[in-house]
Amino acid sequence: MKINIIPIVSALHDGVAINEETKALISKIEDLSEYSFNISDIAHLYETELSLVLVQSGGSEGRFLDMEKNLKPPYYLLTYGSNNSLAASMEILSYLKNKNEKAEILHGPAEYIISRLNELHDKKEKTPVRLGVVGKPSDWLIASDVDYEECKSLLNIELVDVEMDELIKTYNEISLDDYKKDLVLDFDPKQVDDAKKLSKALELLKEKYNLKGLTLRCFDLLDTVKTTGCLGLALLNSEDSIGTCEGDIPAMLSMYILKEATGSPGFQANPSRIDAEKNEMVFAHCTLPLNMTDSYEVMTHFESGIGVAFRGHLKEQDITIFKLSKNLKEYYVSEGKIIQNLDECNLCRTQIKIEVEDTKYFLSNPYGNHHIIVFGNHKNKLIEYMRAL
Questions:
Q1: What's the pTM value of the predicted model, to 2 decimals?
Q2: Burial class, 48, CB count within 10 angstroms (exposed 0-12 / middle 13-18 / buried 19+)
Q3: Which of these, 285, 282, 292, 306, lies nearest to 348 by C-alpha position?
Q4: What is the DSSP letter of 44?
Q5: What confidence tier does 302 reach under pLDDT thresholds 50, 70, 90?
Q6: What CA–CA distance (Å, rounded) separates 58 from 206?
């Protein structure tokens, strides 16, 4: 595989000596791999699948700034261990991170650089995952819009818009004979039947558009088909898929990443109450993966009093909380522990009290409302997963 490289260097350094070191670094990588490198100018840099900036010396930072307007993320900075190349790369990386840009230094033994190039190449080669946005994000999610092209570029995830009218049309065409799942819910039969039809409609759209999951502008269903998406989303999340409420795209992406990184289903929930002195929080929502529960009670949806929703009882155990920011470059991850299941009348149906590492993030710089909770201690695993993107 061919990789274009653009070198940058300070005018204070001996260009001949640096060029020899560059040749040595590139030759070693080429000898140990199937990669071939081409020294490129800025006009042709992005003609190969992977493109690198070779930081050859200290003092290269100004040169990077001069050419920055012609570069595009993600930025991969190749360095070697001499001429203050690494020091300059770290200054450039800090500058890019301060701008919330996706960037990384490739430095170390040739074997490590090759392994990282392999990971980056594999990501480029993968067919994008398709996730559906059924309806637009709910009107109150004013901090949750996502750039679709950035999502595909940074996460290799293609967001597919599906009109709410198509969901409703599909729902209206479904007979309960189409619903094959062996699911018995001890609740109002009409409400259960309608929720099953909505669940089947989501399945059909998922198959039609070849989706690995979706987010649903679910509150629109309350006035149109008089049911909720809570059952459909609960079942999606209990299977090899994901589904989130309210058209929340960052929450959907967070849930997908969590499931990919940990193999476990996630609970999308609202932070409902915070005790900063005790580092305790209450999270609540009306749907969750049914296979996360010890037991559950079927109820109506909290805000509307209609449809099917779930009050799940979750085992008191260690958990991890995760949320990707709307710019797709930052994230929050923290570990904690479920210490109590609650049963309050003024919150969404499933309610858990969690002991967290720190509550400051939620009160000073949260990435929106919904957060995703998964069983187990996965903080290091998620950090590594995000680093490898």
A1: 0.78
A2: middle
A3: 285
A4: G
A5: very high
A6: 52
Q: Residue-wise over 115-151: b if at least 16 C-beta within 10 A, else e?
A: ebbeebbeeeeeeebbbbbbbebbeebeebebeeeeb
| 29 in Cβ contact with 37 (< 8 Å) | yes
pLDDT of amino acid 279:
96
Measured distance CA(356)–CA(281) in Å, rounded: 7
Q: How many helices, marked H, and strands, marked E, lie in the chain? A: 12, 17
Instruction: Count other C-beta atoms under 10 Å from residue 60's C-beta.
Output: 28
Q: Is 35 helix (H, G, I), strand (E, B) or coil?
A: coil
149: left (phi over 0), alpha (psi -120 to 50) or beta: alpha
| Residues 6 or more apart whose Cβ sits within 8 Å of residue 83 | 13, 18, 21, 56, 57, 58
CA–CA gap between residue 95 and residue 345 (Å, rounded) = 49
What is the C-alpha separation between 142 and 204, in angstroms, rounded? 29
Interval 118-141 mean pLDDT: 84
Mean pLDDT of 202-217: 96
The structure tokens listed for 313 are 């009882």
pLDDT interval class at 306 (50, 70, 90): very high
Q: From residue 216, give the alpha-carbon distance in Å to each of 205, 226, 230, 284.
A: 11, 15, 10, 18
> Which pair of structure tokens corresponds to residue 358?
């720190």
What SS3 class is residue 239?
coil
Q: What is the secondary structure of 272-333 as a DSSP string?
A: EEEETTTTEEEEEES---GGG-SEEEEE--TTTS-S-EEEEE--S-EEEEEEE-TTSS-EEE
Task: Report the amino acid identity of residue 198.
Answer: L
- Which residues, including other chains, have CB under 8 Å from residue 140's CB and lie 6 or more apart? 246
CA distance 290 to 294: 9
212: which 2 tokens? 């690995």
